[in-house]
Amino acid sequence: MILKDCNYLMPVSINDAIIYKSKLWFIINDFNGLASEDVETGDIEFIGEFADESYASKRLYETMQVCDGKIYFAPFYAKSIAVFDIDEKKFSSIPLDEKKVNCKSKQPIFGGSKMYGKYMFFVPVHSKAIIRLNTENQELDYITGWAEEVASIKFNDDAYVRRQVVLREGKLLIPFCNADAVMELDCETLEYKIYRIENEKIGFSGICFDGKDFWLSPRRDGNIVRWNPLTGHEDVIEIDKDEGGTKILHAYAGIASSQGKVMIFPLVHKKCGDILNSKIILQEGIFEFVKDEEQLISYFRKDTGTLVFINKKNDVKSEIEIKIRQRDVDEKRIIEESKEILCEDNFISLRNLISVLEGVHHSRPPVKGEMHRAGAAPDRQPP
Fold it and tell me: What are the tens digits of pLDDT across the range 19-47?
């Protein structure tokens, strides 16, 4: 049954958000869609769906960057780079060379992204290539040699990179999840160097820069590392240990630095234990992503459906509850296409089928705090 209150604002999960021309633009995770909210009036607009992708598909695009009035989207499960022209309100796509991308079917391709002048860089999740897109002519450069070097030092088949990277002085710093290492990539020459950092085969989920040193958050429970590639100095800070000593594989979304402190953001609920460094703060909540940029920190808290911005100059915090109008969601189409996705992916089960069909039985808007998933297909890959 379709909800009758079509003006009801329903919460959604998002993969990324940016502010451009007085609007907050965000990628919807629960199904195929891009939406915006006017930061002054609060007006919400569903922009549309990405072309050539199923409406019911989740987590199609992971991050986005804006350049010359166009938004570029890093494909996670999608088949190509997406582009949205803001003035013309049109979607388009840039095809990828599948052989150069070199990624197994149904695996996430790219996660993180970063702008450097006219270039947009796409950082791999499971692809064996880093892509540099020239936004002026849409030409793509594939950087691939690094994967062979990482193969000799990686300790599992986890993602290469989660999503968080840092740009410093024309160089991209990329932390690996499946190796205790960080890559430094020259954005002009595309030459790279891989630094090995001792961290007990834990890997890294994120990176930030505090003006002097880089800070690396662990991929799974373990240690935060403060690192300076110029001096070679490494400082390991042990963070909270869960009872029983269990180490969670995907434990942290990333890390950020502001006003002399370092914040670490968990992917799962964690008790704030002892951290042997007063500069480090373990954030309370469950987070989808964190971005640490020159003047602004932004992160999405999944357990509250809230997008948070912190001004790094004055530490002022602002929060936005991410919602869209229920009338903009085609629940029937999501349910039907979700069935097709489940069958095509060959993992249909009673549990999955119930998950797909449960959206049919809603006769009321969700109560406060209840996440309405609109019958979307289940996640296919951990973050």
Answer: 999 999 999 999 999 999 999 999 999 99
Three-class secondary structure of residue 309 per DSSP: strand
Using only C-alpha atoms, the chain has a radius of gyration, in whole angstroms, of 20
Residue 192 burial (10 A CB sphere; 0-12, 13-18, 19+): middle
Q: How many angstroms separate the CA atoms of 348 and 342, rounded?
A: 5
For 196-240, the pLDDT digits (tens) are 998 888 899 999 999 999 999 999 878 899 999 988 888 888 775
The residue type found at 160 is Y
Exposed/middle/buried for residue 113 (C-beta within 10 Å: 0-12, 13-18, 19+): buried
The one-letter amino acid at 327: R
**Nearest CA among 74, 71, 160 for reference residue 111:** 74
The C-alpha atoms of residue 223 and residue 275 are separated, in whole angstroms, by 10
Q: Which two tokens stand for residue 16?
A: 């990324």
Q: Which two tokens stand for residue 98?
A: 């599948």
Span between the terminal Cα atoms of the chain, in Å: 32
